[in-house]
Design goal:
Layout: E1 15-21, E2 27-31, E3 44-56, H1 72-82, E4 85-89, H2 95-103, E5 109-112, H3 117-134, E6 141-151, E7 154-159
Parallel strand pairs: 2-4, 4-5
Antiparallel strand pairs: 1-3, 2-3, 3-6, 6-7
Length: 160
């Protein structure tokens, strides 16, 4: 049976696909949680991992939920935000000192609303959702979730 993807009936349940950028991708990020009572108040770093789950009620002309090849722009956003960066919360009490270190080229600082896996998952979810819209994938395709992991034991997921 030769059918074109658009000839397929609308799915009763959305079809999902995932894209993972694992820890081996090298999104090496340093951050801290200044309000923590634990050792997390100190600067520490991880090679963060990201997992995106996409959904669509209908597939595209290729029969896909999302074209993985087109996700290079999304990966570039991750690189620009997380790769060899020091992420500093906008309310960090030492924000001015981090800015000085950035100006001295000691760190490559990215100021973010908040730090930690949960904050990064929400931030990346919002950015990726907007990217899907701007790239023309939405509304046919939408973002279900973004998972950000520090390592195999710690992660946070933001659902739409």
């Amino acid at each position: 049976m030769n059918t074109h993807p658009h000839d397929l009936p609308r799915l009763h349940q959305p079809l999902h696909s995932t894209k993972t950028y694992g820890h081996e991708q090298g999104f090496t990020t340093t951050y801290r949680q200044p309000r923590a009572q634990s050792h997390c108040r100190f600067l520490h770093g991880y090679a963060l991992g990201f997992k995106f789950t996409f959904a669509a009620a209908t597939v595209d002309d290729n029969g896909w939920v999302v074209d993985f090849g087109a996700l290079k722009a999304l990966k570039q956003i991750l690189t620009d935000t997380f790769d060899h960066k020091t992420l500093v919360s906008a309310d960090d009490p030492h924000l001015d000192q981090f800015r000085l270190m950035h100006g001295m080229k000691m760190i490559d600082m990215v100021q973010v609303p908040a730090t930690g896996c949960e904050a990064f998952a929400r931030m990346v979810f919002d950015v990726a959702g907007q990217w899907l819209l701007d790239a023309g994938f939405a509304p046919r395709c939408w973002l279900v979730s973004v998972e950000v992991s520090e390592h195999g034991g710690n992660s946070a997921v933001c659902f739409g």
